[in-house]
Amino acid sequence: MADGLELIRGWFDARGWTPWAFQESAWSSFREGRSGLIHVPTGAGKTYASYMGPLSELIEEEPKPDGLRVLFVTPLRAVSRDIEKALKLPVEELGLIDRVTVESRTGDTSSSVRARQRKKLPTVLVTTPESLCLLLTQDEAREKLGGVRAVIVDEWHELLSTKRGSQMELVLARLRSFAPRMRTWALSATIANLDDAASAVAGSEEEPVLVSGEIDRPVFVESVLPREGEPFPWAGHMGLVMLPRVLEAIETDAEGLPAVSTLVFVNTRSQAERWFGAIEAARPEWRPVIGLHHGSIDKADREQIEGGLKSGEVRLVVATSSLDLGVDFAPVERVMQIGSVKGVARLMQRAGRASHRPGAPCTVTCVPTNALELVEIAAARRAIAEGEVEPRVPDVSPLDVLSQHLVTCAMGGGFRAEEMFEEVRTAWSFRDLSRTEFDWALALVEKGGETLHAYPEYHKVVLGEDGVYRVESKRIATLHRMNVGTITADAVMDIRFANGKKIGFIEETFIDKLRPGEKFVFAGRTLAYQRTRDLTAIVKPATGTTNFTPIWGGTRLPISESLSESVREALESARDGTYDATVDLELELAQLLVEPQKRLSAIPDADETLVEIGETREGAHCFVYPFEGRLVHEGLAALTALRLTRHRSATFSTAANDYGFELLTAKGYPFEELVTNALFTLDDVVEDAVDSVNVSAMAKKQFREVARISGLVPQSVPGAARSVKSVQAKSGLIYDVLEEFDPENMLLMQAKREALEKQFERTRLGRTLTRLSSGRLVVKLIARPTPLSLPLVVERMGAKLSTESLAERIEKMRAAWEK
After folding, report:
1. Which of 222, 233, 391, 738 sits at 20 to 30 Å (Cα–Cα) from 369?
2. Are 526 and 753 in contact (CB under 8 A)?
3. How confident is the model at residue 533 (pLDDT cuts 50, 70, 90)?
4. Binning pLDDT at 50, 70 and 90, where does residue 329 land?
5. Which residues have CB under 8 Å from 260's CB, separation 6+?
């Protein structure tokens, strides 16, 4: 019998490589029968660290492997081909192709390959969470998957705190029941709570191994800053005023083209469209070598850009998070970030796209879009240096995910209730699931629960005389397979030319507002809307220019908790001058903001909270600056307004951003008397939060996702196109029925919890209230808007004024600081 590890070490040696210590550790841990997490920097060799242990066993297996042995799961199907190539390489070069076959199975896999795989699966399969769920729905799932020895989950940090992650945990629990010898490994580069992450992939009944590499791959944060005297915004997030400086910073070759392959990251799809168009207009000679990449552009166009990056033909790409993960673009040498990335881990992830080689340092060049982002950049640099990365916390027993999983298992050979309950509790996120909750979810998929039992479409699983739950209806089975997964679609429609060529997809609400002939920018093109047909927007190429760009909902990210703490510390440092001006150039430039803020009001210590109170012709203002992110501040504004009205009746207008919130009411309101630590008490916070906002409306919107995932409302149906609006209408109807006749329905309660968490980051709101109620409030009376309050004023005024008049008002307020 060949020594698998010795052959693999020989293969490394033949390629001029030496295995890292963490790779050797992962190989030996796997062969000892252990599961765990591999946590090393991007580009350090995680893939081969996780794969070579299983491959060494395949080399040694006698007789040769027959059937599926290794599953490699990626959250991005676009990278499955690259992973497949990487896994095939040692197999081919070691002459193992007659023993080990490597294939992919995703939503992009051809029907012929799928048909072949239905008969016989390869030895190693690269797949996505959703495609793996579909394998579990096959009648012979236990037989086909019972030989699995290893499951490797890539980019675990992206799955961990989502419902996709919870579903993946349930899938792993199911596979362990099929294949007791199976070991599970997760891969991640940027995560803080390593023990939780390792436990989530290994399951609640196993002590996981944590493999970390002592690989120094430092992340350097640089910045492109405005020159002295150049105009620079005090608010806003597009940042196009910095375009000349960005173009100067991009090195060019003798032909005037970008000299090195560069990724220019932005935070929103609208921003990507605007920046790509601006670069193309300013440097038309770059058109053959630049590209645009975001999630709404057609897959074929995105793949063309990705291929160009790999080959080096495309040298500069403006992209959103659609290029954050997975794909190894070896030629990329430079990464730029327009605007604050709002999170430490996200900035590190994007920086890691550059110089994607083990041990190679990576640099990200940040471009601030407004004055306060100068502080954010310096804060991010400090947080990275101190290792302050955000944790990813798994969901706790999401019952919509469990309900879908029960139907999947009923289709894949069936299950017994007692055995399934014990199996589900081995999934980390469901380790505290009660029998009451499990029985409720089982009753939901068996007979529609207490409210929907009269409708046959909700009678999905049937209890047989042998005590096994199965799916007997072919229609229900077909519907379930079409709707497997936890990714819910936005209300979008395709964009196509009249000849049928697809350009991408766009939100229905944007198209609904267009008039025939109206021009807009999409995928780097100027288009003219013609008509809507069969849930498709028909457009044609247009001449001329326009700045009208779709605004996609939900794309502005709030600042993370780790970064917000660092921002408070950086501001204090800027106030006191306790920073190195040769390193934190941003804080040196931020003195343009810091000095007038100190003169007009104050800059608090990192553990203090500034409150500014003043009156203008608009009324009485109260500005509060916890620096805890937009979502938390929206919740705080609503909660604070409610509590204030209990002391003195008033009507408030509110505004919130990542740094604080504003309350505006009629003149004479006694803010100075009422805004005390007691206002931020945790007492009755849940009840007050519910009273302060329209929770029912938010929960009804969130219920669309819960209803889709749980199977109450299918997103896709056989033989017919179904608009997202119709899905929303049906989920809304079910919500109203449950609200009236079954208000304690567990899915209804889950939707309300998730709505509060999504809208306000509820648990973070609680931590913020604790800090505000126990810490020192620095209350300042102000005569005019300050540098910190100005962005909040802009936020509120922006909806009422034109761009020109708003700019004039901002300039007048800014000029007043000099008086």
Report:
1. 391
2. no
3. confident
4. low
5. 251, 315, 333, 334
Cα–Cα dist 256/238, whole Å: 26
Pairwise CA distance, residues 164 & 16, whole Å:
38
Closest residue by Cα to residue 363 from 330, 325, 337: 337
Helix axis angle for 790-797 and 803-816, nearest 10°, is: 160
Beta strands in 310-374 (DSSP E): 316-319, 332-338, 362-367
Q: How far apart are CA 22 and CA 39, in angstroms?
A: 9
Q: What is the dihedral of CA 748, 749, 755, 756, to 10 degrees?
A: 160
The residue among 758 and 25 whose pLDDT is bigger is 25
Measured from the Cβ of residue 667, the count of other Cβ atoms closer than 10 Å reads 11
pLDDT given at position 42: 74
CA distance 165 to 430: 12
Quote the strand ranges of 599-755, DSSP E. Answer: 609-616, 619-625, 653-656, 661-665
Q: Which residue(s) pair with 622 in the sheet? A: 613, 663
- Rounded to the nearest angstrom, the gap between the alpha carbon of residue 410 and the centroid of all alpha carbons in its chain is 31
Task: Return the closest-CA partner of residue 395 out of 766, 757, 42.
Answer: 757
Query: For residues 784 and 814, what is the distance between their CA atoms, to the nearest angstrom?
Result: 10
670: tokens are 């006694």
Taking the C-alpha atoms of residue 180 and residue 428, their distance in angstroms, rounded to an integer, is 17
52-61 pLDDT, tens digit each:
999 999 999 9
CA 756/CA 698 separation, integer angstroms: 8
Cβ pair 644, 616 in contact under 8 A: no
Q: Which residues contact 72 (CB under 8 A, 6 or more apart)?
A: 51, 83, 87, 124, 125, 126, 127, 152, 154
Q: How do strand 261-265 and strand 219-223 relate by DSSP bridges?
A: unpaired
pLDDT-derived band of residue 1, with 50, 70 and 90 as boundaries? low
Could you give the CA distance from residue 645 to residue 733 in angstroms, rounded to a whole number?
34
Give the chain's end-to-end CA distance (angstroms, integer). 85
| pLDDT higher at 392 or 443 | 443
User: Cβ distance 276 to 555 under 8 Å?
Assistant: no
Reduced to 3 states (helix: H, G, I; strand: E, B; else coil), residue 294 is coil
Stretch among 526-535, 627-636, 701-710 having the lowest mean pLDDT: 526-535
Token digits for 32? Answer: 């000892």
Q: E-assigned strands of 331-425?
A: 332-338, 362-367
What's the per-residue H, E or C state across 676-694? CHHHHCCCCHHHHHHHHCC
Residues 6+ apart with CB under 8 A from 499: none
Rounded CA separation 157/325 (Å): 11
Please name the residue that has the structure tokens 């209730």: 417
Which residue spans within 596-741 are E strands per DSSP? 609-616, 619-625, 653-656, 661-665
CB 710 within 8 A of CB 747: yes
